C-alpha cells in the first residue's frame, strides 16, 4: 500500500483531531504518521496566517517523504514547501511545484479543516 493510496487503511478518518492551530507556527509546518498493521500514512500541515493546508508527505517526483527532519517542510523564509531530496519547491496554498524536476505537478492534498481552533481531518 503506497502513501498516495486514498484507500490506505492507515489514513486517519474524517474528524480526527491533529493539533490546535496555536500549535503551528505562522508560517509553519508539522508532520504526522499513522500506522495500521503494515500500512503507513504520512501527511503534513502547512500554516500561513489563519489558513492551513494538508498534503500527503510524498514528492511527486520520486515518492519519497519531503522532509529529512521532523516538521521541516518549509524554506527558511516560510514561503515555499521544499523537498529535501532534490530541492523541488511547492506553493503552500495549492501544492503546485514551481521549481525542480516535478515542475507543474502537485502534491497530493490531504483534506483538513479548522473547527473551533483545532485542525481536524475532513
From TrEMBL:
Keyword Magnesium appears in the UniProt entry: no
Boundaries of every Rieske domain copy: 16-121
Family annotation (Pfam families): Rieske (PF00355)
Entry-linked InterPro entries: Rieske_2Fe-2S, Rieske_2Fe-2S_sf
PROSITE patterns listed in its UniProt record: RIESKE
Keyword Iron-sulfur applies: yes
Molecular-function GO terms, alphabetical: 2 iron, 2 sulfur cluster binding; metal ion binding
This protein's UniProt keywords: 2Fe-2S, Iron, Iron-sulfur, Metal-binding
Entries under SUPFAM superfamilies matching the protein: ISP domain (SSF50022)
PANTHER family: PTHR40261, RIESKE DOMAIN-CONTAINING PROTEIN
Protein name in UniProt: Rieske 2Fe-2S domain-containing protein
The organism of origin for this protein: Phenylobacterium glaciei
Amino acid at each position: 500500500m503506497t502513501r498516495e493510496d486514498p484507500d490506505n487503511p492507515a489514513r486517519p478518518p474524517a474528524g480526527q483531531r491533529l493539533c490546535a492551530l496555536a500549535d503551528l507556527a505562522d508560517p509553519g509546518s508539522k508532520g504526522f504518521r499513522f500506522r495500521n498493521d503494515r500500512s503507513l500514512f504520512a501527511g503534513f500541515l502547512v500554516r500561513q496566517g489563519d489558513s492551513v493546508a494538508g498534503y500527503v508527505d510524498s514528492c511527486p517526483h520520486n515518492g519519497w517523504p519531503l522532509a529529512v527532519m521532523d516538521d521541516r517542510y518549509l524554506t527558511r523564509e516560510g514561503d515555499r514547501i521544499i523537498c529535501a531530496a532534490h530541492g523541488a519547491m511547492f506553493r503552500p496554498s495549492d501544492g503546485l511545484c514551481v521549481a525542480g524536476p516535478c515542475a507543474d505537478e502537485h502534491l497530493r492534498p490531504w483534506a483538513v479543516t479548522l473547527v473551533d481552533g483545532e485542525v481536524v481531518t475532513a
